[in-house]
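Progress report, Aim 2. The chain analyzed during this reporting quarter is listed below.
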Amino acid sequence: MFVIYIGSDYGGFVLKEEMKECLKERKECEIADLGAFSFEPLDDFPDFALAVANKVSEKEGAKGILFCGSGQGMAIAANKVKRIRAAVCWDITSAKQSREHLDVNILCLGAKFVSTDLAKKIIDIWLDTPFLKEEKYSRRIRKI
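Predicted structure tokens for the chain:
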């Protein structure tokens, strides 16, 4: 069993809450919601991005999912933390490749750009796709 840390600002709050219910159906993981816990239009995405990134960086095999309006701000903030590789994914292909080639440990989703159904598909493929562990990919990650 592994932990998935989730977080959102106001822009991703509704999508996070919807995906939290979907994630609970997965038996191989535990969900830890690090906020926001209510819709607050004045909250700041870096607070939630850093909370999730710090937790993911502490525990080998942990993963995170961040939700905001575009996904971009969350990815920028999360990538400031050592051992974090956060990526914005907008479709199945980008989600799959982020895991296979980059061993991404935090998925960032933009609620303005992905529907609930697409977000669920992206999350499922992201969680189910392993890192390929080919030397060229490992070498590139070490350089990061």
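DSSP finds six helices and five strands in the chain. The chain has a mean pLDDT of 96. These observations will guide the mutagenesis work planned for the next reporting period.
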